[in-house]
Design a protein that fits this description.
The protein is mainly β. It has 3 domains: 7-102, no CATH class; 127-377, 7 Propeller (Methylamine Dehydrogenase, Chain H), CATH 2.130.10; 403-652, Neuraminidase (6 Propeller), CATH 2.120.10. Helix content is 1%, strand content 40%. It has 1 helix and 52 strands. Strands 11, 33, 50, 51 and 52 form a 5-stranded antiparallel beta sheet that branches. Strands 17, 18, 19, 20 and 21 form a 5-stranded antiparallel beta sheet that branches. A 4-stranded antiparallel beta sheet has the order 12-32-31-30, with no helix packed on it. The radius of gyration is 31 Å and the shape is elongated.
Length: 653
């Protein structure tokens, strides 16, 4: 076949891109190499006079393959990838050959060493992140009633529009535009729009103000307006958010000073949407107080005014209340089982953190105050948050591929580590506290097939909080856990029955305290020999003379990487290291395997660039790299962020 190179490996003819040959110190592929197969030259134009001698920079190299007969003992050719020495007849070389041709193994584009330029998410997730447009805490959010766009404001006080190509499907969101000017010189405390998109409303500490839009919903056409509502005489706490009744005849303002002075103010507008006609009605003064119900940060009503959903920064809590009389906040009462916990984001502590709803109450969207995210959920009953710790839909629906809500399968929260077993049918997790746990997968490496059935928990005696990694030996009779944040050590456990978590017992402990006073990141090599622990920009290297035996640990060196490090992973051959901090992964090449002092920084990737994935709160990743000869589909990075409210896989294509 013209333009391709053929070499017989193990009885199979390999083509152009399947192998590499080094000629004069330069790797050659494709039509640069000419090979004679069955008396026919393959690969570009054939040599005019048959095989040639040792090539120069401008020469081509000819092979006449007569069959793989005996190993070569002389040669000038070496292959970039190979394991088994093969023999063949080489014709026409002018100097002795040394080395030998070995069966080529092609590089794995999806495995070690990972190229951060190729990272991508190929699944579907019910989340949108706009950090790359602006990184700053939320000051307001509003979804267009038809579900095709939503608007945000942050500390720069401009309005940004984000469009959904499929109405109400957050996974189809892309950034659209930004207003040409700021809407306020002081802190914005919530936004809303008139139902036809011709007026924008926003709050500050004492007023609700408005701007008109020359073209409905087009934020680039904003203009000033002198109309404002002064509510300073009714205000007690800090203004936190605002919302309107859908017909514009009611306005509600949320205020809070922490656990105290949490109120909702109610106003009536005699002329719909006209702030100049607003009159104060009342405030709710008893419902919102204390740690949970206090710290009010957002509010939204059902379209019929009989239900109220509020967000609170005491934690990522949503509360729901019933109104005995529609739109009358004096008739509020807490709905039974009213609290829900949303760890899909790290905080509600912003302004205007209103949950957004589809008009029929069948979909709702939870914003994050600090991570520029909007997460989509589907309640079992319209207008009802679940009243339990977590909401599972639509995350665990089949069409959300490479994405899962692990909590549905009782995967513990506050995770510090995860690992697959050797065949991908089991996942192991180590949480903040609570030993080590396993969960089964009905399809190997497919996190959508997680199940709580057959899960096992093992006790890790003496373990404190924050183990940054763990590793089993090949037969599952040894387990290393650490480096650990709390006690600054690594622990060795023995399993009397391999991989049976019920048979774990503590064997020994090694403390890092002679070199380190604090730990932020750590890793254990696959072979159980090398340990790495970090704090700040410094990384400390340790080696065990006997694998998985911490009694043989010795300190090797410390090295400053020049960047902060909170998580670490290292390749099985010790030549690539991956670090994490904030939202950024960085790769390093180690010139000498395992030796951190020989590192060279390669590339960095910030997860804010993956707009349809949640933010990472840590660098907790499970890396699968099973070779590339068959394009192993399981290869990639599996993330189960700290709160374990989401799990997802990214690939390198």
């Amino acid at each position: 076949m013209a333009g391709q190179v053929h070499v017989k490996v193990g009885g199979v003819w390999k083509e152009a891109d399947d192998f590499y040959v080094k000629v004069g110190g330069v790797w050659k592929t494709g039509t640069e190499i000419h090979t004679k197969v069955s008396s026919t030259w393959e690969g570009g134009a054939a040599p005019s006079s048959g095989p040639v001698g040792l090539p120069t920079a401008s020469a081509i190299l000819g092979f006449d393959i007569m069959g793989f007969a005996v190993p070569i003992t002389d040669g000038v050719i070496d292959t970039k990838y190979g394991v088994n020495s093969m023999g063949f007849d080489v014709i026409g070389f002018s100097v002795p050959i040394s080395g030998g041709m070995r069966a080529p193994v092609p590089p794995d584009p999806q495995g070690w060493p990972f190229d951060l330029d190729n990272i991508q998410f190929n699944g579907k997730a019910p989340v949108y992140k706009w950090t790359k447009e602006y990184n700053g805490n939320l000051r307001g959010i509003y979804m267009k009633p038809d579900g095709t766009a939503f608007y945000t404001v942050q500390p720069d006080h401009v309005i940004r529009r984000h469009d959904m190509s499929v109405a109400y499907d957050i996974s189809t969101t892309t950034y659209n535009s930004v207003s040409s000017s700021t809407i306020s010189s002081s802190t914005v405390r919530g936004i809303s729009f008139k139902s036809d998109g011709t007026v924008l409303y926003y709050g500050d500490s004492t007023h609700i103000r408005q701007k008109t839009l020359g073209t409905a919903w087009d934020i680039t056409t904003l203009s000033s307006s002198s109309t404002a509502l002064d509510f300073s005489t009714q205000n007690v706490g800090q203004t936190r958010s605002l919302t309107f009744k859908p017909d514009g005849t009611k306005l509600y303002i949320a205020e809070s000073d922490g656990s105290n002075d949490n109120y909702i103010l109610e106003f009536t507008l005699s002329s719909a949407w006209d702030l100049s006609t607003a009159s104060y009605v009342q405030k709710d003064s008893t419902t919102f107080s204390g740690f949970g119900d206090g710290y009010l940060r957002g509010l939204s009503f059902s379209t019929d005014g009989t239900k109220l959903i509020t967000s609170h920064s005491s934690n990522t809590y949503l509360y729901q209340y019933d109104l005995g009389t529609a739109w009358d906040i004096s008739t509020l009462s807490a709905y039974s089982g009213n609290k829900s916990y949303y760890q899909t984001t790290n905080s509600f502590d912003g302004y205007g953190v209103n949950v957004q709803w589809k008009s029929d109450g069948t979909i709702y969207y939870v914003p994050g105050a600090y991570d520029e995210t909007l997460n989509q959920f589907e309640p079992t009953t319209p207008w009802r948050v679940p009243g339990t710790l977590y909401e599972y839909k639509p995350m665990n629906d089949a069409d959300y591929t490479d994405f899962v809500m692990p909590r549905q399968y009782n995967v513990p929260q506050s995770l510090y580590g995860c690992r697959f077993n050797s065949d991908g049918t089991k996942l192991y997790f180590i949480p903040l506290l609570g030993g080590i746990q396993s969960r089964n997968l009905t399809s190997a490496y497919d996190i959508k097939t997680l199940t709580s059935s057959g899960g096992v928990t093992g006790t890790l005696s003496g373990l404190g909080f924050g183990p940054k990694d763990f590793m089993f030996n090949s037969n599952g009779t040894k387990l290393l856990v650490g480096p650990e944040i709390q006690n600054k050590n690594i622990k060795e456990y023995t399993l009397s029955t391999g991989f049976d978590l019920s048979t774990i017992s503590l064997t020994d402990t090694f403390a890092f305290t002679s070199q380190m006073s604090s730990i932020s990141g750590g890793a254990i090599s696959d072979d159980g020999i090398h340990i790495y622990a970090s704090y700040g920009q410094n990384m400390y290297q340790y080696t065990m003379t006997t694998p998985f035996d911490v009694s043989t640990v010795s300190y090797i060196r410390v090295h400053n990487f020049g960047i902060n490090i909170s998580a670490i992973r290292i390749s099985p051959d010790g030549t690539q290291m991956i670090t994490f901090n904030g939202q950024t992964f960085t790769t390093f090449t180690l010139g000498t395997a395992w030796d951190i002092s020989t590192e060279t920084q390669d590339k960095s990737f910030d997860y804010k660039n993956l707009t349809n994935l949640p933010s990472l709160y840590d660098g907790n990743i499970c890396i699968v790299s099973n070779g590339g000869a068959s394009g192993a589909p399981e290869n990639g990075w599996y993330h189960f962020p700290y709160y374990c409210s989401q799990g997802f896989k990214v690939e390198f294509n």
